[in-house]
Amino acid sequence: MGLRIQNNIAALSTHRNLAVADRGLSKSLERLSSGFKINKASDDSAGLAISMRFRSQIKALTQGASNASQAQSLLQVAEGAADQVTNILQRMKELATQAASDSTPGSDRTKINNEITDLESEIDRIVNSTKYAGSTLVDGSFGATSVSSAGNLTTGSLQISAVDVSGATAGASYTVTITTSATTKTMEIEKGDTTQSIAVSANSIASGETMVLDFSALGIKVTVGDTYDVTTTNAAAAAATTTTTATNATFQLGNENNSDNRIAFSLTDLNLAVLANGSSADIATDTLANAQSAIATIDTAIDTVATARASIGSVQNRMGFAGANIATSLENLTAAESVIRDADLAFETVAFTKNQILLQAGTAMLAQANAAPQAVLSLLG
C-alpha cells in the first residue's frame, strides 16, 4: 500500500460519509422536533403542494362548520319569534271567537277589541325587534330580493309602495309589465316559463287603503295604493318593465365558489298585515260582524305563521345535515393530509438513532484516518 501525505483519501472518504450522517441526523432532529415529515419544499415538493391544498380546504371547511352553526342559531332566534307570534294569534282567535257570540255584550266586545289592538301592536313589536347580529330577521328584510329599476314601478300614479320578494327564487330574473284598459289595470310577472297576472278593477280600492297583489306562483307580493286602479296613468310608467334578481341570504359552507357549497334561504315577513294576506292590521271585534270576519283573518295569519315555521324547521334540518357532512369531511381530509405531511415518530426515532451512531463512528474513524499518514515518519527515522 502506498503511503501519501498530500491527499489523505481515507480521510476524505470518511469525511464524506460523516457529512451524510450529519445531514441525516439534522433532518431527523428537524422532523422529531416539528412533528412534520415535510418542513420545506426540498423535503417533498409534490407532497408539500398537495398538503397545502388539503390545509386550505380544511381551514375553509372549519369556517364553513362555524357558519352552519351560526345559521342554526339565527334560525332558532327567528323560530322563537314565530312561536310567540303563534301564541299571540291563538289568543286573538280565542278573543275573536268570544266576541263573535251574541252572548257577549257590546261593552265586553269593546274590551276584547282593546286587548286585540294591544296584541296587534305586540306582534309588530316582536317582528321589528327580533334581530341577530344587527340584522332584523322576520320583518321581510332578511334575505329579501333586491329589485333593480324599482323607480319605474313607483312613478307617478302607479302608487306601488312596496315589493316583497322574500319568497322569490335565488338567482332568478323576473320581468314585470303593467298594462291598462278602460276598466282594469293588470300587472304581469314572468320568470322563465312561469307567468302570473293580477287585474285590478278601476276604483276598486277604497280611498286611503292599500291592496297586496299576491303572485303566489312566483313568491312575490306587491303593495299598491288607492290610486293604482285608476286607468288613466302615465303611459311610460304604465308600460314600465323591470328586472328583479333574487338574492336570498347566503351561508357559505364549502370551500369552493359555487351554489353546491352554499345554502341560501329567506325568512317570511311576520308583520300582521302580511300574515292576514294584505288585510288591514287593525283587526276589529267591536261588532258581531267584525268579530266573525276577524276569525277568518286570524285563521289566515295562523296558517301563514305555520308555513313560515315549517320553512324555518326544514332549513334547520338541512343545516344540521350539512354540518354533520362537514364534520365527516374534515375528519377524512385531516387524515389524508396527515398521511402526507405528518412525521412517523417511531420511524424517525429509528433513523435518528442510526444517524447518531454513524456520526459518532464516523468521527472516530476520521480521527484514525487522519492519524494513518503519520506512519510515514517511521520511514524518515
TrEMBL record:
Q: What Gene3D superfamilies does the record point to? A: 3.30.70.2120, f41 fragment of flagellin, N-terminal domain, Flagellar export chaperone, C-terminal domain
Q: Which family does it belong to?
A: Belongs to the bacterial flagellin family.
Cellular localisation:
Secreted; Bacterial flagellum
Q: What is this protein called?
A: Flagellin
Principal location class: secreted
Ranges for domain Flagellin C-terminal = 296-380
- Keyword Secreted set for record: yes
Q: What does this protein do?
A: Flagellin is the subunit protein which polymerizes to form the filaments of bacterial flagella.
User: Which organism is this protein's natural source?
Assistant: Candidatus Scalindua arabica
Recorded GO terms, molecular function?
Answer: structural molecule activity
Cellular component, GO annotation: bacterial-type flagellum; extracellular region
Q: Which UniProt keywords apply?
A: Bacterial flagellum, Cell projection, Cilium, Flagellum, Secreted
List residues of the Flagellin N-terminal domain.
5-141
